[in-house]
Amino acid sequence: MSVKKVLGAAALAVALTACSSGGSGGAGTPQGEKSFSVGVTTYFLSHLTPGRSVASNVDYALFTPLTTVDATSGKAVNAVAESIETDDNVTWTVKIKPGWTFHNGEQVTAQSFADSWNATAYAPNAFENNFMFAPFKGYAELNPADGKPSEKTLSGVEVVDPATLKITLTKPLSLLPYVLAQTAFAPMPKAAFADLPGFDRKPIGNGPYQLDGEGLAAGVTKVALRKFGGYQGQAGDADRIEVKSYQDEAASYRDLQAGALDVSLVTGNNLTDAAARFKDRLVRVPFPAVIYLGFPLWDKRFSDVKVRQAFAHAIDRETIVKSLLRGFGQPATGLAGASVPGGGAADCAACSYDPAKAKALLAEAGGWSGPLKLWTYQDPVNTVVLEAVGNQLRANLGIETVTTQTQPVDQLYPNLAAKKIDGPVLLYMGAGYPHLYALADQLFTKTSASNVTGYDSPEFAKLMADAAKAGQEEAMGLTQRAAKLAMDGLPLTPLFQPVGGLAYSTRVSGVKPEFLGAAVLSAVKVG
Amino acid sequence: MASSTLASASAEAPPAARPGLLAKLRRRPAFAISSAIALVVCAMAAVPQAFAGWFGGGDPRKCDLVNSGLPPAPGHPFGFDIQGCDLYSNVVYGARSSVLIALLVTAGMIVVAVVLGSLAGYFRGWVDAVISRVMDVFFGFPALVGMIVLLQAASTHNEWTVSAVLILFGWPVLARVMRGSVLETATGEYVAAARGVGAGTARILLRHVLPNALGPVAVLTGLNVGGVIASESALTFLGVGLQTPAISWGVQLNTAQQYFVTSPHLLIFPSIFLTVTVLSFVLLGDSLRDAFDPRLRQEVARP
Amino acid sequence: MTRLESLPGYDAAAPLLAVSELRVRFGATTVVDGVGYEVDGGQTLAVLGESGSGKSVTARAIMGLVRPPRGAVTAGSARLRGVDLLTLAEEERRRLRGTTIAMVFQDALSALNPVLSVGYQIAELFRAHQGLSRKEAARRAVEVLDLVRIPSAARRARDYPHQFSGGMRQRVGIGLAIALNPQVIIADEPTTALDVTVQAQIIRLLGELQREHGTALVLITHDMGVVADIADRVAVMYAGRVVEQGAAAEVYARPAHPYTEALLGAIPRPELRGRRLAVIPGAPPDPGRPEPGCRFRPRCGYAGDACGQQPPAREIGPGRLTACHEWERVTTP
Amino acid sequence: MGKYALHRLLMALPVLLGTTFLIYLAVYALPGDPIQALAGPNRALSPSVEQALRERFHLDDPLLVQYGSYLKGLLSGDLGMSFAGRPVSEVIAASWPVTFQLGVTAWLFMTVLGVLLGTVAGLRRGRLADALVLGGTTVVMGVPFFVVAYVAQIVLGVNLGWLPVSGTDAGWPLAYVMPGLVLALYGLPQVARLTRTSVLDNLNADHVDTATAKGLRPRAVVVRHVLRNSLIPVVSLLGVSLGYLLSGTVLIEGIFNLPGLGYQIFTAIPQHDGPVVVGVGTLLVLVFLLVNLLVDLLYGILDPRIRLG
Fold first, then answer.
1. In terms of domains, do A358 and A459 share one?
2. Is C111 in contact with D209 (Cβ distance < 8 A)?
3. Residue A264 located in a structural domain
4. Which of A259, A423, A454, C126 yields a CA-CA distance of 20 to 30 A from C10?
């Protein structure tokens, strides 16, 4: 073996790979075809099966569920559903519009929905969205505490005829149309069940766009969507959409700046830069979520509501949002922001900044002794906000030693569940569907997995149950009363409602956010 | 016929005493500058309060969010960090964890490397085989990946855990050099002589082998200090090292990366301090090595 | 070879190699301080002195190996038949190296490139100076190895320096020097690194080659015993100066400098067996801190008041020089 | 030499085995719940799905049983399934070309630039070029790489628009120039400095005097007798520095959005995705060992004094 040979082999290898990758990159688009590219985080492209999807804008481009939530009115409106009717909020009859087909031409029928839902609700499939089917009758049989499930289908989902679906719940849920708007409840064609892993990579949906090319595979950072000609809803404008995945929004924003991308989410400090750089091509997106400081109610030091009120009053939300977040956020005056239907009320009395009152309340409660530890999970924004909160608590309450601790998500949540966290914890909670009920339910219902404070109020539970039974208008009022009640109990104090941004290049227009903040792909206009 | 030579005839007189190492070092400007900087950094670490107050600020914890991310202003030469604290005093206090970690890691690595390196080099045979293979594992394994895994696993992130991880992945380089030099020394004639007069293993190791084998390791460790400080900041930057409210350059840089575009001074000032510190330690190590043992250049090249 | 004649200052009557008033500085230290010696074709000049006396530096200066930043030749001349090497253009000088004047180094192991075969290293000479093809040069290299009595030269030409024994390696070193048949060979302690028995062989080989080609040989050594047999003339150096010079037999028989005398006392001789060797008390002066007067004074048994002055080189016989105020006392038995 | 190579390969086996076990142990020992990591911060899996996942990935088995079945799979060529439900072999197949191209690019930059700068500095010792190289490389050693990466992205990518900011769209070499350069900065100072000292050592070596005394042209002396000898120790550094490069891909691929092995391993760690971490990690170690074996063989060819075996 000679040196020359070794070098020669290396050079050859480089040349070969250069050729092979050169071929795949920069595939030209035919003349006259309207196309644009959009950046998303890798999380958006983790899975594309309805039962595993994360309800991202890509999911909504590929699938259209029974309903959608109208971004302007905040109401659930019919999509594939012709009508959704109920008398008691327990038994529901869904009529399906005729003429809808999957990308492979298969008819979208009641059976398509039933198949999809059964697959997700069936525990051994281990689809991540399985938990969403808990309100359905028959869920328990498919998800026994141990052993194999005795059934393979939900008894609460009944195909009456190809156009009619009958849904039975275990208890009333007036907000079902909102729930059904998530891609977890989208239909699946027969072809999917021959090869579920294959379907997850390259799903056949019923949405305005279909997946082009290979689809998802390990190491794929880019998928192409092509306009689906047979779509029955509002068709998209672009013929082709290139979806690129990034580790975080900052990376995709950098590509947007460099002109390699047309639409990108913007978060954190990049918003300030984007506001200056993109001006009117930056859309402010209020997220249907809240960032809050939760109190460990199992910790004796926080059992007195006055202590919790003192903490709540000692935090200067305005300044945190203005200085730290550069105005991209909504200082919380209540649980939910105006972007969440039913939200926007100033239901948090203790959320006003009042250091004097805070000190007085703490003194009344017997003062504070010893160190204070604040917790959150690893996230750049959380960490910075938590540190600011710590500084304010130290300054305004006179607590000497305030430390902060961050843990990975997979450590923090189990520790919270085991009540091993010994201080207030800063967390993010997004509404599962666009309704105040969702947020209140997730945070305060005793059995909810995301009720981390241990809040337990029969009065609250009663109001929520009433709301679930009531009609939509009445339900809203009841939910708001429940939220106010919880806020008075103050198991947690909201800090702010996060605001993100969507920035876009001059090549596109009509960029508007969907419920989770990402751009509605079918609404983007090219040129 | 044993031909005597002039050299042997006059060799009794020692060659005009080796010019003092210190004198030799002092003549190098790189040494003078780098050791001065290193001393200042160490002083900062020991008594930050003496430096922090120079411009009127002084308390790194005195923060006002209103000033969040503001650029340099009178009395605040480096501006304010994102929490509205005086950045200058924070950067000064940041020296502490860097220096502490550098000390801990250096000490730890020397201990581990000396123990394992001597065992392998002195006893050879299977002891050497096992220790050498373990070293191979650590050499081949992408150290950064290993460190991330372990630090993810650690439930606390302070100077001690970060140091422990850095030691774990840093010792093999030193141990290999130690092993080599013990191997060389242990075959030396005076060791054979010591063994000949019946000295015990422990005595031979401690009295004869170690003192002679330690030199290269000590110098190499000196070279390493800059790298340790840089590694700490890299780990912290990745979010697995130190965490707020710890004050460290890595933490400051980690926070600053999000604000790089709008508040570049948050990145620039800690970077300058970090760079200058690492540089001074690297240069210091360089000069020490050149002065003490030019032979080591080869060893460093072939760890 | 004919090149020398076309160079400025050529004088067929001048000695083959004449060094005069050569000064070399390393940094601020003058390590060669006005050295001069001459040697003609067919002659062997032994340059004697202990390590650090400047004998090797003088040789390297003649070869043009003393260059900034390490050191510089500050004065003097080194003439080949009248052509001053030191003022010659570098390219002209390069053409003379190897062809007209060549050098054998002290330690052949370090003087040979460890990663090139010895054949290649000798062949380089033919390629550089005679423009031979790679193949032809290789053939000639084998001839050279044969000439320096390396057994199975053709095979060994492909070997690397570390594969040779010390003596064989020095033969290769000599081969490098004689390959192009130069007129002057400077051998810098060619036997120091070798076993005693091998030393004699190497010296004998050098002597034979010199006689065959009528070369001028400058043999640098600190070992008087080695050169006693083959040297025609001797120059003794001490602390950067030549302290005594003359025909070998004369110098050996009647040293005219206390240092030479002491050196001779340091040669073990069969008739002195059983007695202690003479040892020169004290250490050579530190060239970095020169003291006024005779450099040897601190170690000299003859030192008198005059020795406070630098002794000039005085001619005390035909071709016989000494730099000692008290030389007459030294020569008087 | 063949025997030596075989011996080295055999020695690599226990090292590889040890590596897989250590990685497995580390991933196993990670506190926190892999299932929670899978679900993300805002989603709670139902207990039944959790149970199904635990069974699917054998999360409830003791460490040795898990490791045993992993090894069993490994022997039959099965690297296991990632948590995302894709075969690890597929993950590796998809990612290695990216890492390979990145690694080769960075290696080329490091070698060519490092040797060039080191040689110039060595030959021009004490002059401006030397000072510039020495100063430049020390600064590079001190500046945190991520600062370099961000600045490069903003300046070269966003402001000047010369190079793509991230991703592999532009293909080799364009997409790999910036990340390759940043990655090369890891080892570049060492290579340049070693080349410089090595050139200096050789310039002062006796055999260079011999070559000069032979009357060779100055260029021949420098090329054949100084550079050739100087590069030998550099070759061995190139092997060792591959370790740094592979480590560095973990960071660089993240920052530059390159879906390579380092990126996979970096995202797999917080997910507790043992099969991916072990598979990719072991592959990286294997590559390191093989390249170093090659380097040592090459060393033996370049330097006849080294006897392998």
1. yes
2. yes
3. no
4. C126
Radius of gyration of chain B (CA): 24
Which pair of structure tokens corresponds to residue B268? 């620039």
Please tell me whether residues A293 and A151 are part of one structural domain: no
| A308 plus A387 within the same structural domain | yes
Which CATH number is A340's domain given? 3.10.105.10
Report all structural domains of chain C as residue ranges with CATH numbers, in order of start. Answer: 4-100+182-331 (3.40.50.300)
Examine chains B and C and say if they touch (3+ CB pairs below 8 A).
yes
Residue A158 maps to a domain: yes
Residue A280 located in a structural domain: no
Kindly determine whether residue A18 and residue D171, on different chains, have CB atoms separated by under 8 Å.
Answer: yes
Cα separation, B228 vs A154, whole angstroms: 59
Nearest to D18 among B137, B144, B145 (CB): B137
Lowest mean pLDDT among A431-440, C203-212, C288-297: C288-297
**Where residue A83 sits, what CATH number does that domain have?**
3.40.190.10
Q: Do C223 and B2 touch (CB under 8 A)?
A: no
Handedness of CA D19, D23, D28, D34 (dihedral sign): negative
Q: Does position B164 have pLDDT exceeding 60, yes or no? A: yes
Host domain of residue A144: 3-244+505-526
Which residues of C, range 17-76, sit inside 8 Å of D by Cβ? 60, 63-65, 69-70
**ipTM of the shown complex:** 0.75
The series of mean pLDDT values per 10 residues for chain D, 309 residues long, is 79 81 78 72 74 80 83 83 81 88 91 92 84 82 78 82 78 85 86 87 87 90 89 81 80 85 83 82 82 81 70
Neighbors of chain C with 3 or more C-beta pairs under 8 Å: B, D
Taking residue B168's Cβ as centre, other Cβ atoms within 10 Å add up to: 17
With contact defined as 3+ CB pairs under 8 Å, the chains touching B are A, C, D
Residues whose CB is less than 8 angstroms from the CB of residue C333 and which lie 6 or more positions away in sequence, other chains included: none
pLDDT at A18 over 80: no
| Total CB pairs under 8 A between chain B and C | 44
A457 in the same domain as A439: yes
Across the interface, whether the CB atoms of C60 and D214 are under 8 A apart is answered no
Claim to verify: residue A156 and residue A232 sit in the same structural domain: yes
Is the domain of A180 the same as that of A87?
yes
- Residues A157, A295: one domain? no
The DSSP string of D205-225 is: SHHHHHHHHTT--HHHIIIII
How many other CB atoms are there within 10 angstroms of residue A26's CB atom?
10
What does the block give as tokens for A371? 């160190």
C282 contacts chain B (CB < 8 A): yes
Tell me the one-letter amino acid at C192: T
Spatial separation of the C-alpha atoms in residues D103 and D98, rounded to whole Å: 8
Considering the domain B37-58+79-300 in this protein, what is its CATH number? 1.10.3720.10
Specify the pTM. 0.79
CB contact under 8 A, B282 and D138: yes
Question: For C213-263, how does the pLDDT look when each residue is reduced to its tens digit (9 = 90+)?
Answer: 889 999 998 777 777 778 899 999 988 889 999 998 888 888 888 888 888
Residues 163-222 of B with CB under 8 A from A: none
**Contact yes or no for D31 and B153 at CB 8 A:** yes
Chain C nearest CA to B298, separation (Å): 16
Give the domain ranges of chain B.
Answer: 37-58+79-300
Token output for B81: 């960090």
Q: How many domains does chain A have?
A: 2
Backbone angles phi, psi at C247, to 5 degrees: -60, 140
Q: With respect to residue A388, please indicate whether it lies within any of the assigned structural domains.
A: yes
CB contact under 8 A, C129 and D215: yes
Q: Is C271 exposed, middle or buried (0-12, 13-18, 19+ CB in 10 A)?
A: exposed
Q: Is the pLDDT of residue C155 over 90?
A: yes
Sign of the Cα torsion C175, C179, C183, C188 reads negative
Distance CA A446, CA A457 (A): 8
